[in-house]
């Protein structure tokens, strides 16, 4: 069966909001404690993976029983975090869309590394986002990203590369026309959509698009 969307559950903040994102036909990947979260809530991950250092042996046995397949990694002899392993697994399936939840939490280093993973999806031509109960994070590259109003209060733009040029905003409270943003500038913080949809055009560079609410 071809899956057009993959949802990755990893081990950061998770809740009912994350389960509400699941739709029929989604392929579910659980990374470490994210796999346990799915299993505990009655969902069967198609793939569970990680070093599983966040779960007990009994919980790991439960994950195995609930999963389509399980991939174990040595906690020391591995090059990537469990989240990146899940991300690479998702990319290898070449879906149209990847959504990752549980990727933001108390470890800012992990959160920032997870945001950087969006670049790999962009390079492969796959639409991707990171979501939690307050944020939706996407990446805009050369071209146009259409943003649909999903009830977030703010939309902020932050460069992921040193400089992003040719930024034009349509349908926003504070429009831009061919603007340039450099790392360290806050010009793109706390914009708003005027209606149900807006467009973000980028000529060069990689731009983080962060929809948020308090």
Describe the structure.
The protein has 2 domains: 5-133, 3-Layer(aba) Sandwich (Rossmann fold), CATH 3.40.50; 140-212, Sandwich (Jelly Rolls). 22% of the residues lie in helices and 33% in strands. It contains 6 helices and 13 strands. It has helices at residues 16-19, 33-40, 57-66, 82-92, 108-116, 118-123; strands at 5-9, 27-31, 47-50, 69-72, 97-101, 127-131, 135-140, 143-148, 154-159, 163-170, 179-182, 197-202, 207-212. The chain has a 9-stranded mixed beta sheet with strand order 4-3-2-1-5-6-7-13-9, with helices on both faces. Strand 1 (5-9), helix 1 (16-19) and strand 2 form a beta-alpha-beta unit. The radius of gyration is 18 Å and the shape is elongated. GO terms for molecular function: ATP binding; kinase activity; thiamine binding; thiamine diphosphokinase activity. InterPro entries: Thi_PPkinase, Thiamin_PyroPKinase_B1-bd, TPK, TPK_B1-bd_sf, TPK_catalytic, TPK_catalytic_sf.
Quick synopsis:
With 214 residues, this protein is of the alpha/beta class. It folds into two domains: 5-133, Thiamin pyrophosphokinase, catalytic domain (Rossmann fold, 3-Layer(aba) Sandwich); 140-212, Jelly Rolls. The chain has helices at residues 16-19, 33-40, 57-66, 82-92, 108-116, 118-123; strands at residues 5-9, 27-31, 47-50, 69-72, 97-101, 127-131, 135-140, 143-148, 154-159, 163-170, 179-182, 197-202, 207-212.
């Amino acid at each position: 069966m071809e899956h057009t969307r993959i949802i990755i559950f990893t081990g950061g903040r998770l809740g009912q909001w994350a389960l509400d994102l699941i739709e029929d036909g989604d392929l579910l990947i659980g990374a470490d404690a994210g796999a346990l979260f799915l299993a505990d809530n009655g969902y069967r991950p198609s793939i569970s993976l990680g070093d599983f250092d966040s779960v007990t042996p009994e919980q790991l046995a439960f994950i195995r029983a609930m999963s389509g397949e399980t991939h174990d990694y040595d906690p020391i002899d591995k090059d990537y975090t469990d989240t990146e392993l899940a991300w690479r697994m998702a990319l290898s399936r070449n879906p149209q869309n990847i959504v990752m939840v549980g990727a933001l939490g108390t470890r800012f280093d992990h959160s920032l590394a997870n945001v950087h993973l969006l670049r790999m999806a962009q390079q492969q031509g796959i639409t991707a986002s990171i979501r939690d109960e307050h944020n939706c994070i996407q990446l805009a590259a050369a071209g146009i990203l259409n943003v649909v109003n999903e009830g977030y209060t703010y939309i902020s733009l932050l460069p992921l590369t040193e400089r992003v040029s040719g930024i034009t905003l349509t349908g926003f409270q504070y429009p831009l026309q061919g603007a340039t943003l450099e790392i360290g500038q806050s010009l793109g913080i706390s914009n708003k959509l005027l209606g149900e949809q807006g467009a973000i055009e980028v000529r060069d560079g990689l731009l983080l698009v962060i929809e948020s609410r308090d």
